[in-house]
Amino acid sequence: MDTSRLERVSEHEWRLAPRGAMRVPAVIFADANLIREMDDKVLEQIGNVACLPGIVSAAYAMPDAHWGYGFPVGGVAAFDPEDGGVISAGGVGFDISCGVRTLLTGLRRSDVEPVKRALADGLFAEIPAGLGSRGKIALDAAETDAMLKGGARWAVERGYGVPADLERIEDRGTAAGALPDAVSEEAKNRQREEMGTLGSGNHYLEVQEVTELFDREAADAFGLEEGAIVVSIHCGSRGLGHQIGTEFLREMALAAPTHGIELPDLELACAPIASPLGQRYLGAMRAAINCALANRQIITHLTRKVFADLFPGARLDLLFDVSHNTCKEELHALDGERRRVFVHRKGATRAFGLGHPNLPAAFAAVGQPVFIGGSMGTTSSIMAGTATGRERGFSSACHGAGRRLSRHQALKRWRGRAVVDELAARGIIVRSPSLRGVAEEAPGAYKDTASVVDSAHAAGLARKVATLEPIVCIKG
User: From CA 347, how far away is CA 65, in angstroms rounded?
Assistant: First the structure.
């Protein structure tokens, strides 16, 4: 990225002053190396976000930011509904409520190592992965609507998990205000056989070892210790979310002139939050959030079944589940008063700090778990939300390493079989239905996870708690 237009506020913060149609500044959190690696399109896109009606404070980009659809991936922006604020389908993304949940197994590396191939095979057989994958659960129309209304709570009520899980899920497992009637029949039909599936792209289920701790108090609260085995699940709302995004982006783009909205980019199609269109999208998006939460809950149930066969007595308690493609109504301090705003996080994770009233009691003194995903052969991280993050980016943090190369570029550089063999030589087992997908998601196609995490930590967005190394990866 060309930094000549940016003011360097600190070692990990860069500012683009308002110009032209920008209503607020754009702020990028990154160290010098990361910002140089970023495509110039990131600056263009976050500047365009700063032009949208009703935006408050600033348009933010996280350390893992890269080019996306409308909003950059890693983009955060909040809008005031009392000041003509808008909601943008492009600011949420196509995989609505894609997120990560992490399970505590109570096992050690020495427990898993002798059976890790059987574990990989069992997980791959039980949890469908890949483009268009179908699960063993088929929902009729009434059950689809019930799932879209109830989320993870719906799944638990049908035997996929236990009530205690709900306390460790964002919004206690159910997004309020979901409107299944706002979801098209085409979107619902795409989802009826996709529950309990990972999907494709960068989605995964990983068995990981905790290899390093940085914050003992937070680690204790999260139930983490060095050498412990955890399972992380990364997926979202599958075909339903993609269909909702596609339909509403088109409708918002066509309706923008009737609302007096001049779009700096058609991919930023949006509607006033208070408008009927904005309210319908909110209802459909919340239904998709519930779909994603239910999907991860079912996958958790299937994962527990596989572990129970190999490790009788293993509990796989849920640490936490949080999404990174959403728009949430939240209260934030602005100009000395608490105001209701709608926070878009597109490839960015909610990261509430200690004492936040929406956190489970177990995390009140340390902050919310924040999951930063890697890519098959790279480390992942667990961080904790901070009080300073609330002021610096609407309690948001990065969600992964962020792409360094496009999927097309990755295919030119790597072959899937070679990636699988290379990782196997390092003791990492990969199971995937698509070697092409493995090549597209090769570890080298992503930025250095540690650098991204260090920047988020240094910028005060979240603080480091633990590093995770992959052992088994089921890749979509």
Answer: 8
